[in-house]
Structure formats: C-alpha cells, structure tokens
Amino acid sequence: MSRRVKILFVSSSFTLIIYLLRRYRRYLLRKTRQTSVTQGSLINIPSSSSSSSGISVNKRFLNQLLVIIRIFNPRFGSDAFFLLITHVTTLISRTFLSIYIARLEGAIVKSLVQRNLRDFIRTICIFLTVAVPSSFINSLIRYTESKLALAFRTKLTRYAYDSYFRNQTYFRVSNLDSRLLTPDQNLTDDIETFASTLTHLFSQLTKPFLDVAIITWTLVRMVQQKKTARGLREVPILTIMVIFLTFWALRKLSPRFGRLVSEEAKRRGLLRFAHTRIIANAEEIAFFDGHEVEKNWILKLYNQLREQTNLIIKKKLWFIMLEQFLMKYFWHSCGMIFIAIPLLSYDGPPTTDDPIGDPLGISTRTQEFTVSKNLLSSGADAVERIISSYKEIAELAGRTNRVYTMLHVFDECANERYRRISMTIDDHTSIDMKRKVMLNQQAEGQIIESDENIIVENVPIITPNGDIIVESLSLKIIPTMHVLITGPNGCGKSSFFRLIRGLWPIYSGRLYRPNPSNFFLIPQKPYMCPGTLRDQIIYPHTIDQTFANDDQLMEMLHYVELQYIVQREGGLNAERDWKDILSGGEKQRLGLARMFYHKPKYALLDECTSAVSIDVEGKIYERAKQLGISLLTITHRPSLWAYHTHLLQFNGEGQWTFEVLNTEKRLTLKGEKERLEAQLAGVPAIQQRLSELCHLLGEDTIDNCK
Ligand SMILES: Nc1ncnc2c1ncn2[C@@H]1O[C@H](COP(=O)(O)OP(=O)(O)OP(=O)(O)O)[C@@H](O)[C@H]1O
C-alpha cells in the first residue's frame, strides 16, 4: 500500500468514527428528550390532523388552489393583469435571447478556430450589446415577479380581512372554534408566503416550459439539416425517456415537503403566539417573577419548531444530493452522448462556409457543437428547474392548505358552523360527559328581532366546549326593568350576556331581542382602542360618525367624574397609550362614559364598577336610569341592589330564578346572614376559652362542660 493510500485510509476512518460518535450522541439526546416527553413535559400541540394528513400534490390541492386563484383572479385591464402580461412577455424574450446568445457563443468559437480576428471582435461587440437588454430583462423578471406577488397578496389579504371582520368572525374563530390556533399568523405570514411561492413558481415553471419548447425546436431544426446523420429519431426518444426516468425516481423518493412545511408553519405560529401572550401579560409575570416558567414554555415551543426545521433540512440533504446526481452528472453524460451521435454518425460532405481555409469543416463542426452544447445545457437547466420545482409545488401545497383552511374556517364561522378539536381529557375529569352536547352540532335555536323586549324561551346556555351551564332558560325583560344578575363564579352570568347579544350560538328554543345596536356591554376591563381621548369616549364610532361636540363629551365625562383627565392629558384630541396610562378605575369610568355617549336601550354591565368608589357608582347608576337606559348588572356589591327592579339568580348547578327584587327584604336577609356568619366565626374562640376555664376551675372537661 502506498503512503498516499495509507493517509487516505486513516483520515477516512477517523472521519467515519467521528461521524458515528456524533450520531450516537444525538441518538442518546433524542432518547432522553423522548423520556421527558412521555413524563408529560411536552407541550401538547393539538394536531389538526384533518388538515395536515392530506397535504400533497393531488386533486385536493388543485381544487384548493383553484378556489384561491379565483379570489385574486387578475381581471382584464387591471394592474395585476398588466403585470402578468409584462411578466410573461419578459420570460419569452429571455428565452429567445438565451438562444441568440448560444448562437453568438458558437460564432465566437468558430472565429477562434478559424483565427479570424475581424469576426471575433465583431461577435464580441454584438455579445456585449445584447448583454444590456438581456440584463435589463433579467432584472425586469424579478421586478414583475415581486410586484405580482404583492398584488396577489393584497387581493387575498383584503378578501381575508372582509371575511374575518364579517359576522364577528374574529371572535368566533378564537372563542367558538378551535381549528385555527393562530389566525394572526394565517392572516399575515401564510398569505405572504403563499403569494410569493406561487408567483415564484409561476416564473420558475413558465420559463423552463418555454425554454424546453423553443430549444427543442431549434435543436431539431439543426439536426434536420444533417440529413445523413444517424440517431435523428432515437435521440429525442432517449431524451424523453431519461427525463421521465429521472422524474419518476425523484417523485418516488421525494419526502412529503408539503406536510413538513405546513407543520413547521404551525409550530412557528405557536411560538409567536406564546411571545404575544407574554407581552400582553408582562406585568403579572413580572410581579410573580414567573419568567422561568415562561422561558421554559417558550424554549419548549422553540425546540419543537427547531426539530421540525431540522427534519426538513435533513430530508433536503439526501433529496438534493439525489437530485444533483441525476440532473447534473447523469444528464450531462447523456447530453454529451446525444450530441455525439449525430456528429459522429454524419457521413455526408463536410458542411463549411469556408472550403478553402477549412476544407474539412472543423470550425463549422466546432461551432455546431458549441451551439448545441449550450442549447442542450439550457434545455437541461430548464427541465431540471421543472423537475426540482416539484419540491416547491409540494411546499406550495402546504401553504395553499393553510390559506384555504383559514378562508374555509372563516366562512364556516361566519355561518355559525363550528368545530372544536377535543383536547386531552383527564381520566378523573369531573365533567359529566352525558351533559355534553355534540360539539359539532348545528345550532338550531331561533333568534328573532323584536322591537324592544328581550324574551328568552327554553334556551339552554351551552359553552363553546359543549358544557351545558343551564339546561333551559325562560324569561322576559322589558325596557322599564333593571335586572340584577347574581350567582357563584362560573355559573353563567357573563354567558347570559353573550347569549342575548348573539355571541354564543342558540342550540334550541327561541330568543327575541332588539337589534344588537340596542345593547352596550361594559366589561370589568374596558377595551381601550388606539387613538385620542375623544376616540375612547365615542368608540366604536369614528370621528366622522360622531354626533357629540366637545361640550357634550365633557358633560359625559362629568357624569362619571372624569373631567379632570382632559386637562391632565392635554385635551380631547390627545393621543396616548390609554391602556397603560389610565388606572383601573379610570378605565372603568371611561367605559361608562361610552354608555352615556351611546345611550343604548340596554346596558350590560359586567362588574364594571368594581374599581369605582360607591358614591360615584351610585351617581352613575342614577344618571343612567334618568336617561332611560335599562340596566342589566352583574355585581357582587349589595350597594347596587337599590338601583334594580328584578333579580336573575343562578345557583351554579343549572337552576335559576327570575323574580321582582325586593331590596329591603334582601338587605334584611343579607344583614341576618352576615350576623350569623360573624357569630359562627366566634364559636371556636368561645370553645377555646370555655376549655381554659374548665381547666382553671378544675371542673369537668370540655366535653362535659358542653
Ligand atoms: N370561551 C369559552 N369557552 C369555553 N368555556 C367557556 C368560555 N367562556 C366561559 N366558559 C365557561 O362557561 C362557564 C360560565 O362562564 P361565565 O363567564 O358565564 O361565568 P360567570 O358566572 O360570569 O363567572 P364570574 O362571576 O367568575 O365572572 C364557566 O365554566 C366557563 O369556564
């Protein structure tokens, strides 16, 4: 064995050992991680199996793609149509330019073989002149591609926003349906990547198809000129066979990139969602020093994303290797053989335009060889692009599925068709499964618009998870009533509001209620929209819709004793981050100022004065009643009883009562209850003292004392 071979052998063995050791280490690491997973540490990413299992290049994908393409269909005369035409024209011009350049290269080689300086300089000059439009066309292709992607994205985004903001779909998607985990990501990233992948693929495929057609035609014409050459029929057949063989092998061995990228996008969305949650709850997390828990959670999500990305990278490594081998080296050899067949088998007279200087036609043969080699390699490039775009088509299938699913879910939610994917249910769960309605059951109750009364007839209150909170509710509220709603936590008080406002589906029974514009909800933490102080008061009106002038707005602020804020913050037109700069009580009072601005028929007040002092709260309630607003109030404060006429009480076990509220009687009962509670609280202390006295007096033990 020579020294060089020995060195080669040792270094290869060393590399192999290192490689095997690394693989073993990774195997161990994976095992450890799997163990921790089975111990319950893995975050349960709910698999939307229905959407990911069928992601591949098939009929379903084509149908989905067609549905989406119909949305951004570039109509005749539109900007997108003009862009599309420009794009296709530039692609065609590029193909003709490539052929012309291949011919020029042939002419350059010929002039070199002939040692013809004049021709050489002339062709070089032409080459450089052609390079200018050629470079411009290359740049134009990219420009039109990006503009097209943007145009498609804009159309799709507008369409998606229309669906998202129709019929409270934004609420329904997140609260009543669980198919879309991260609609924000679907609406931003997914649409963007779908539009850019699609347009890229369009030019990636259009140009090679044009290339293949025009180059084949040029090559066939060249070969046809050599009538006595052999292989004129065999070469095209062999070429087609080689191409199909390669395509078949790659298709068989290709990993399912569609499913892989779709899963990766889902995990990326979950990671982003976790970050958004931390930003939204940063203050509470900081108070509790909860950063470790949050960090671990985020890291776990990141690791899951990393694993998926890693998987894709690994799968691509082997696939690209195979692709390169077949389409670069195998094809190159085949191409050389195919060019050689007509050239070698030609036995006619030498074809030359210079019989004196080059009687054997060597320069012409060299020129032909160079031209056909260039054309063939451009053709091979084109076919390579077509075949390798299979991978991208598979990726497009994944992206299409995500966009299609988003639009489909939006549409279903807008039409009150919900689906919830059951999360893992603990074996010892206390949920009475019999009380669960079918999660995918269609809501069959009726909502009928009334003039002013709210009439509920045998309507159950059912959560989006299918839990029945109240089997059947029946009551009638008229505008002169002011209803107090009470009951233990989680008994369905806020759900009653969601029900009458139509946010939750009515599964059976009938609900008569006035138009939703007659309801105004003020929650415990009112929503502060972006904009000025004026925008906060008139929300959801905009400045163009408002009917109140500055004095009227000041009066509304006065009702809630918040007039000082105008001066403090620099006027009604001051823009601030109101969510952060106002205190909890100020936000609640601003929410109540909104009620005075809109003067609804029914105000739904959900513990919205918990941070307001009792005297201000009383004034606000009095004023609201004077203005003819009917109050439906959820509260635990007895101080508010006096402002109500009726009581709706849930007991937390599915039962309820609706009756006239006798505040005096209720206050007496409440007083008695509190007295008894205070007395009972003192009993252990009395028992303790009694026991001590028994001991000091040497009398009977505590049991006998009793
Ligand atoms: N979006 C939702 N998806 C699933 N279940 C929900 C949803 N919102 C509320 N629930 C469930 O419905 C039940 C009633 O909730 P609701 O908000 O009406 O309670 P509540 O009586 O207002 O309680 P509290 O006094 O604590 O505010 C609870 O068990 C809650 O877990």
Automatic annotation (TrEMBL):
UniProt cross-references to PROSITE patterns, sorted A to Z: ABC_TM1F (PS50929), ABC_TRANSPORTER_1 (PS00211), ABC_TRANSPORTER_2 (PS50893)
Pfam family, one: ABC_tran
Residue ranges occupied by any ABC transmembrane type-1 domain in the UniProt entry: 95-327
SUPFAM superfamilies: ABC transporter transmembrane region, P-loop containing nucleoside triphosphate hydrolases
UniProt subcellular location: Peroxisome membrane
Chief subcellular location: membrane
Bilayer topology term: Multi-pass membrane protein
GO BP, one annotated term: fatty acid beta-oxidation
InterPro entries: AAA+_ATPase, ABC1_TM_dom, ABC1_TM_sf, ABC_transporter-like_ATP-bd, ABC_transporter-like_CS, ABC_transporter_sub-D, P-loop_NTPase
One Gene Ontology term of the molecular function aspect: ATP binding
UniProt domain ABC transporter: residue ranges: 454-678
Keyword terms of this UniProt record: ATP-binding, Hydrolase, Membrane, Nucleotide-binding, Peroxisome, Translocase, Transmembrane, Transmembrane helix, Transport
TM region positions: 6-24, 80-101, 121-141, 231-250
Record-level GO cellular component terms: peroxisomal membrane
PANTHER family on file: ATP-BINDING CASSETTE SUB-FAMILY D MEMBER 1, ATP-BINDING CASSETTE, SUB-FAMILY D MEMBER
Entry similarity comment: Belongs to the ABC transporter superfamily. ABCD family. Peroxisomal fatty acyl CoA transporter (TC 3.A.1.203) subfamily.
Protein name: ATP-binding cassette sub-family D member 2
